[in-house]
Amino acid sequence: MKILILGGDGYLGWPTAMHFAARGHEVAVADNLGKRFWEAEMGVTPLFHIPPLQRRVRIWNEMKRGPKPMKLYIGDIAQNHRFVYHLFEDFRPDAVVHYAEQPSAPYSMVSRLQAVSTQVNNVSGTLNVLFAMKRYTPAAHLIKLGTMGEYGTPNIDIEEGWIEIEHKGRKDRMLFPKQPGSFYHLSKVHDSHNIEFACRIWGMRSTDLNQGVVYGMETDETAMHPELLTSFHYDEIFGTALNRFAVQAVAGMPLTVYGAGGQTRGFLNIRDTLQCVELAAMNQAKEGEFRVFNQFTEAFSVMDLAHKVKEAGEALGLNVAIANVENPRIEKEAHYYNPKNTALFSLGLKHHPLTQDVIMGMLKKIMSSRDVIDRATINPTVKWRKS
Amino acid sequence: MKILILGGDGYLGWPTAMHFAARGHEVAVADNLGKRFWEAEMGVTPLFHIPPLQRRVRIWNEMKRGPKPMKLYIGDIAQNHRFVYHLFEDFRPDAVVHYAEQPSAPYSMVSRLQAVSTQVNNVSGTLNVLFAMKRYTPAAHLIKLGTMGEYGTPNIDIEEGWIEIEHKGRKDRMLFPKQPGSFYHLSKVHDSHNIEFACRIWGMRSTDLNQGVVYGMETDETAMHPELLTSFHYDEIFGTALNRFAVQAVAGMPLTVYGAGGQTRGFLNIRDTLQCVELAAMNQAKEGEFRVFNQFTEAFSVMDLAHKVKEAGEALGLNVAIANVENPRIEKEAHYYNPKNTALFSLGLKHHPLTQDVIMGMLKKIMSSRDVIDRATINPTVKWRKS
């Protein structure tokens, strides 16, 4: 299968590219390297030095693990539609895994500039991909990364993208109503609506993966070579909850739980992201189908998560405190949460549970870079509230 | 009350500005004159020559009907946030009526360029307005024009923006799920989600007016002076159903019903648009409230509408034929349709029904410009379907 990974320089894009290549698929990666600019703008870096994408692709190709060398396209899918058209005309993918978006909720809440640029970037990029697919690869399968954060925390069970609504004696199957929590999450909601429309009117096939919070940094392929690693963030902007807690534990800083910590979210191991994306690709959506999978394996409250990290840290001799800090976000800190995630399991997902061993593995890796942790970038400064 | 009209050069923006000014409000209008560019790009013009906005404002102000002269700001709310910030800092409105968007579904379906520019323009402009309001007029009321087309044609009753969903024994009040029919309609759905978020996190107050198809060209104020008229379109791009049929009847062309004509939509007289917007402004949303009104007065199928125009035309001695043409859009041509519109009536709306007199009045006005009708711009060429 020919698989195009959009956003191949990112935390998940790069491991996904290697994952497919290692399994015999022909892979191309595309990226505008925009994440490296956003990191510079925010003054943060991944914990481990990440070689340029060009170098990682070269190293991968020298290992000769795939049937063909991985192809690399550098360009911007949002600002340069001719780049996107060239990409699809040249590579002609069977499946497209689309990670190529500004990925941070706090970034989108910094100010007007970041809010607007996040939405323009994410929405335009996805529209350009839809038009390029319509033109060059109308039968290809678009696998789009969304987020569980699109749903918010409604007082009813969260279904997988669609819900049968019975209202005043009549019924319809409708898109599940969304209540996203940031301008970033909103951009993903906009994408979902645009993609559903393209499926409806052009007969495109798409799977929207509403992903939970991803943790971890190692996959089978990143472990093959020290320079094939992926971007691991622990800062307030790009660091997700568990990754950030793990670094705080190693740095001897209290784990900063936002507010009461009763916020419950879906989580998954980075290895399971790869498995889920592969399952989606191997079981493609039907012509005209806009299919949604909720992509997480376990749900925890933020406070539960902090306690798990504290326990694992203490088993390694670290002294770990937990601090409830003022919540920079506006979100319910105690709420009903029962999202469905059966679709991917029914396709065969075998998940990696969040065990103490997994957390200890992360902590040990982080300890090897303890000295370079930038403690000034971890605690929240970006606030949702009107200043 | 200080009322800011965004999109004051448009079909509805200009009559709205005069309507408020004539009723003793202090009014400012802003526009980037973008609609005049889009008209040029598509090769279409309004039926009657529309003087520059600057001239119309001057004529209005010379009539001294308002308490203060109407203010005019020329600039782009989507591309120039400093213009938007200046607007709010300088004028400090109590209410903002936001029409300043690319308003055509067919325009948004012309090609990739128009799809992307419509969404970027509409979404960025609204985001800039939200940030400007947060900064300078956080207590002001945003009255945003949406469209009934955001809902599509679900098989359940269409409520006004929100719906109480009962699902597996639990309940929540959620945004009504949308199934918009074009990239333009999608842009309005994106706006609604962004505005709901701003109300939720910043405590802004907003009314989203999901408006039906507007017809007519005359209001109390446009009738005051021959140069105070508003932009009346009959072309495939900017002409709405009834307006287009009326011009076809006068031009001796068959009324082009798209497909079977069973498509049912909400309609309203342009005079009632002004009344509805005024009712929204005089009864403002509460702090933090995202309120939605469905703004139409009567529902008709497209075929019903064609028959009404045919009857009125024949009463005036015109020879009117109806032709079912291939539907350029992708939409259901027979469907359930029961949208609610009680909120505005309960605030006191007294509507102008679509009588034969009303249609005959439109036809007579159009007859006075029969010779300048550009017949080549009326029949549909923009297609929704994958070519």
From TrEMBL, chains A, B:
Q: Which Pfam families match?
A: Epimerase
Q: Which InterPro entries match?
A: Epimerase_deHydtase, NAD(P)-bd_dom_sf
**Where's the NAD-dependent epimerase/dehydratase domain?**
3-294
* Listed PANTHER family: DTDP-D-GLUCOSE 4,6-DEHYDRATASE-RELATED (PTHR43000)
Q: Give the family, as the similarity comment puts it.
A: Belongs to the NAD(P)-dependent epimerase/dehydratase family.
Q: What is this protein called?
A: NAD-dependent dehydratase
What species does this protein belong to?
Answer: Candidatus Sungbacteria bacterium RIFCSPHIGHO2_02_FULL_52_23
Organism phylogeny: Bacteria, Candidatus Sungiibacteriota
